[in-house]
Design a protein that fits this description.
Elements lengths: L1 H23 L7 H10 L4 H29 L2 H10 L5 H12 L14 H10 L4 H25 L1 H14 L1 H28 L7 H9 L5 E4 L3 H4 L8 E2 L24 E4 L6 H12 L5 E3 L3 H7 L10
Parallel strand pairs: 1-2, 1-3, 3-4
Helix pairs in contact: 1-2, 1-3, 2-7, 2-8, 3-6, 3-7, 4-6, 5-6, 8-9
């Protein structure tokens, strides 16, 4: 354990750069605690604290700009990949879409404080066409707030952090095992959250081939897109209805689908989340409201496009 502490003292800036870069690329390796510890160790030098802040902000910006360009190049397909890398619960896409749809680039000011939000928000900015200059401005400000708060806490409680490091160093290999155990518990908890959510929403699905086959036969089930209206308008399955376009305060979310008997061929719900989590949640809600033959679409819009089927887009 003493070796690791010496390593942080000697190469703290480089470790911070790699840690922040990897975390912002989506890996479940928290950088905030390392920023706090490094800030405590560098607290005696304002120049070193300045370099620490600059390096961490640059690392975050590099990762976020990469996700921005990935979103711009590959569209919504890249969003699901981020959740798979980060081990975040699959609903993180839906939550990020909602926040970004409401606040736009301003949401980047607090994005890094919300687990699973920053990487998806960066890619989503590229998907929806946020200007690069606007994205970079708010992303830098958000990174400064995030890094600055960690460095400030580290320098403010430097003596406490130093005492903790001394205890871990005294414990030797047991201190290292304690840190490894804490990291293992963190990753295992994330994994368990995902498995629990998937298991709770297990239900029959419809494949894109089945849906296309029904369309070819002239059978038209009601297709519902549960993504944010901003994404729905950029492209959706032909004939789909936007779930959120019809939401009204004080009224049931499914009111626009009443009466039940107008959906003789059933309802198909889709999203763009891994494991169709958002679609499955809405499907469960509709089942409880008395709708029958409700099924999420396996793979969502990504699978529909990958199969070569038409996507309805706005006219330029």
């Amino acid at each position: 354990m003493g070796f690791l502490v010496d390593l942080i003292r000697e190469y703290g800036l480089g470790i911070v750069f790699l840690n922040v870069l990897v975390e912002q690329l989506g890996a479940p390796i928290p950088a905030y605690p390392v920023l706090v510890v490094t800030g405590a160790l560098e607290g005696a030098s304002w120049a070193r604290l300045g370099w620490l802040t600059l390096i961490a902000v640059v690392a975050a910006l590099i990762a976020d700009v990469l996700w921005y360009h990935a979103g711009k190049a590959y569209g919504h397909r890249v969003l699901g990949q981020i959740c798979r890398i980060s081990l975040s619960p699959d609903a993180c896409i839906r939550q990020t879409e909602s926040v970004y749809g409401r606040w736009g680039a301003r949401s980047l000011l607090v994005a890094k404080f919300i687990p699973g939000f920053a990487s998806i928000a960066s890619a989503l900015a590229g998907v929806v066409g946020t200007p690069l200059r606007t994205f970079v401005l708010f992303d830098i400000l958000g990174a400064l707030i995030w890094v600055g708060s960690a460095v400030f806490l580290g320098s403010l409680f430097s003596s406490t952090v130093q005492d903790l490091l001394d205890v871990l160093t005294a414990l030797g290999k047991w201190g290292l095992l304690l840190l490894l155990l804490a990291f293992t518990v963190f990753v295992a908890r994330k994994w368990w959250q995902r498995k629990r959510v998937i298991r709770s929403l297990k239900m029959p699905r419809m494949s894109v081939a089945e849906l296309a086959g029904l369309h070819a036969q002239g059978v038209t089930p009601t297709v519902i897109d549960v993504r944010e209206p901003l994404l729905f308008e950029r492209g959706h399955i032909p004939g789909a209805k936007s779930w959120l376009h019809h939401q009204a305060k004080g009224k049931p979310s499914y009111e626009h689908l009443l009466p039940h008997d107008q959906h003789a061929h059933g309802l198909v719900v889709y999203c763009d989340c891994p494991n169709e989590i958002s679609a499955a949640r809405v499907a469960r809600q509709l089942q409880r409201a008395g709708f029958s033959n409700v099924r999420p679409l396996t793979g969502g819009l990504t699978a529909w496009e990958a199969a070569g089927f038409e996507v309805e887009k706005p006219q330029n």
